[in-house]
Amino acid sequence: MGQRPDALAQYRGVMVDFEGARQRAQQRLQDSTLTREQRGYYSALVNTPVEYVQRAALYAGIILAQMGKNADAQEVLVKLIQSNPKPVIADEAKLWQGVCQLQVKNYSQAADLLEPLRENARFGEQARWWAARGRALAADPSNAQAYGQALAAAIEQMKKAAEQTGALAKAGDAAALVRRADILLDVGDTQMAAAAV
């Protein structure tokens, strides 16, 4: 945990430094004596998204989410998504936005963000698991029939996530083995809740 604040400061530094360079480039564009090449350079700096800066924003958002600073993480992730990054970066930002929504108990919003990511090759099983948790936790226990149906659907999705994670673990992803154990614990908890309906 001690390295996270240091890493966060580094990522924020990248973002701040680039924004400063972008503002200086914007000011330089006002200079009528610029050559065509200089104007092209400054225009590109002002108008072109830079992947390393977007990745710094993504990692800053992830660290903030892991530290439980969900409002700050959401702010960073939403800005990142609005900057129109490459799909691989945008999808991971949406994944962590969903995680933040789960952490602040906005379960339906979390599931809405996560469900479109369930087939993602890099983290689909995590999105499927967290979306299923969101749907189960959003269900209203006072409506027994709807609650039972929501839990059954969540259990099915969690089992699929466990299968996906198991395949990743067999392929050598050690962290997937730990996630699979967590998913299976959630399956058991959700099955117990469903049995009580």
Commentary on this structure:
The structure is a single chain. This protein has 197 residues and is an all-alpha fold. Helices cover 79% and strands 0% of the residues. It has 9 helices and no strands. Helix 1 runs antiparallel to helix 2, helix 5 packs parallel to helix 7 and helix 7 (124-138) packs parallel to helix 9 (174-195). It is elongated. The protein starts with a helix and ends with a helix. The model has no long low-confidence stretch (mean pLDDT 94).
For the termini, the CA-CA separation is 40 Å
- Topology, number of strands: 0
With helices defined by DSSP (H or I, 4 residues minimum), what is the helix count? 9
Structural class: mainly alpha
Helix coverage percent of residues?
A: over 70%
Beta-strand percentage range: under 5%
Computed CA radius of gyration, to the nearest angstrom:
21 Å
What about the largest sheet? none
Task: Estimate the mean pLDDT confidence.
Answer: 94
What is the succession of H and E elements? HHHHHHHHH
Contiguous uncertain segments of 5+ residues: none
Shape: elongated
Summarize the structure.
It contains 9 helices and no strands.
List the helices and strands and how they pair.
Blueprint: H1 3-28, H2 36-47, H3 51-66, H4 70-82, H5 87-103, H6 107-114, H7 124-138, H8 144-170, H9 174-195
Helix pairs in contact: 1-2, 1-3, 3-4, 3-5, 4-5, 5-6, 5-7, 6-7, 7-8, 7-9, 8-9
